[in-house]
Amino acid sequence: MAQEQKKDNTKKADEQKSPKKLSKDELASRLGVLAKNLPNQNELEQVIGMNIHSNTFFQKMLSTDVRKRGCKMHSNDYYKGMVFLDYLATTLLDDINVFNNLDELSNIAQKEIQNPYLTIDMVVIETGLYAKEKPVNYFEKKNIIEMKKRYDKENATVDLESAGLRPAEPYYDSIGLMIADLVDPKHHDYLANVSGRNELKAVIFTSSALPYIKDEEAKKNIYASLGENDYFGASLIAIDSLRHDTSLSDIQDQFTKAIFPKGSKDDGGKDGGGGDMTEEILGVQKAEDIDMPAAPTSKRKDDSLDKKISSNRITDDVYNNKKKDNTEKKHELERVIDAYKATKDAYLRKKDNDYKRNYARMERMLGLNKKNHR
Amino acid sequence: MTKKIIEGGDLFFKDDVQIVTSELEKKLNLPTPPLFQRDELQIIYKGHAYVVARSLKDSIPDSQIKIYTKNYGLEEIKSGEGKVQSIKDLEESYFKENEEVIRKAQAATIGNCIVGIGTVARDPDEPADDSDSCNELKGLLTTQIGSQLVEKINQHYASKVKNDLPKYKGGSGVINTAKDGSEYNKHYDGTVGLLVLDRKLYFLETMQEYVKKFEKSFEPKFFESIYNMCKTAKPEEVAEQINKNTDKIHPKALPIVRNKIWHSNRSFKLYLDGTYFVPECKGTVDELEKNYALIIERKVKLDGVKKYL
Known about the structure:
The structure holds two protein chains of two kinds.
Chain A: H1 2-17, H2 24-37, H3 52-61, H4 64-69, H5 78-92, H6 98-113, H7 120-133, H8 141-153, H9 170-180, H10 197-209, H11 216-227, H12 231-245, H13 248-259, H14 274-286, H15 303-310, H16 316-366, H17 370-373
Chain B: E1 5-7, E2 17-19, H1 21-25, E3 42-45, E4 48-52, E5 64-67, E6 70-72, E7 74-76, H2 87-97, H3 99-113, E8 114-115, H4 133-137, H5 142-160, H6 183-188, E9 194-197, E10 200-206, H7 207-212, H8 220-232, H9 235-244, H10 253-261, E11 269-272, E12 275-284, H11 286-308
Helix pairs in contact in B: 3-11, 5-11, 9-10
């Protein structure tokens, strides 16, 4: 009897560890009920230019500060990016200054590739670089306690088995689907046991960071934590790994990708790519969304080239012209990266000088200066 | 015997009947009226109450609501047995469910607002008491008192109940305006379509109405063509046309105008009565609900007069 009970308990524990298998509709409905029953995190109603469901989503998923702050991001990545940044800024770092770095990056992108809208990849990499600049030991007990406090404060869990829940409805099924879409489908199973706001954000954060984590051991630990419903723990490993695994060259790669997207001949793609490239560059610019200001309406200089490419008549001449064009763009890109590095260096130097100056001032104030000692 | 009905003041003759207006104007402690209480997205249009249909076969013809990437239809509110509920049905259920509370409120109001001779107001459920002076008054004064009370109630609520919602401009007439005799429809007949979600109130503006607000940001000729297009075209077609002419619209207004109409397959879309609508948030539903509660309160008091006098 006791053995049977033990077996039963082990089975239950295993069931808890292994994520639930839900269809996408079931998952969306579950997340919809969760979202519906969560109190709003902010009450800002963006009347102009925003869809009714986007408003609901942001009210449920963003803090007031982050929502007011905003960030220039590609429309396809906007929801995901904002939740990612919200979790980073309000829970992990308790510091909204990461947005300043993103503004800086966006300015460089605007100046050099005429597109200020960052992709989620750029945001994740920049986050890693920011975490590198800000030397926090994420596994120090004191820090973990602070982060966990912030995590629990905004978690607002909902008992999804409770009888008094606000019922499911199609509108919130769609909100649930919006949330599910922010997470890589490979990680959907980890959403099935989520029952709180910050748990959701932690899964979204971790899922977004995973493609940039190179350390296999860290990845294994992240999946293990997610499997045990330890979403907070998984996000800690993720931010710590991002710090180690991202570099300026990743940003460089992202800029290259924006200019030479997959499929172009230079990228070794099979599609011949000229048309794709045009579409991608103009596509990004025309896809501005929600509360972002209007994108510049730049057009390709050579319209005839566009026509030729779009009609798939790519002659050698066109190809050579395109190659020449791309080489020029590569040079431009190198200048962008140099400018970015220079800005970054200057920023770090300034920070360093400020720190030294403040330190000296503090010493003087406290009478620790050697001269004063004497 | 000369009897007269007087108002206010402390001094009146034994045989006079005094109407205490302040009692008549007192707020009744009634439960919140039914219409805006549903815990789901609700659309009130031309006197019909719709919700998002869970299956397409239930939805009314030519209706579409697209939320994020999912498409649904709209259906009229149904009872537990699956019967379509008009706003009149909803109100009747409300009166029935709260019968006892309403009866007490009516008795208290009519009883307290008439002072002077015993109980002028009679409980229709109680047998008549021959010795009561009430009977004496019956036929002599009740009609007169009743009509005065009705007048006073109407006067009081005329100044309190608002009717300031904008009127319909859109809709090709596929859906007929409901004339169901409900208090809501009698008062708000011809009012703009409403969307209620999570206690927030949205006015349903047609695409034309929405675009019109940004007229000054457009090149005049282009505005005219877009404005006309908005009457029949799909939102995605209007957005495409705007995208093709970005130089004819102020760059700052461009995303604001276009994105709410259509920006991608994640956009919201509402098609009803042969028209595409854009919901515009107008704050919470509280004010409208309070106003509706006053309309219901007036009805309860007027019914009380009929019932007791």
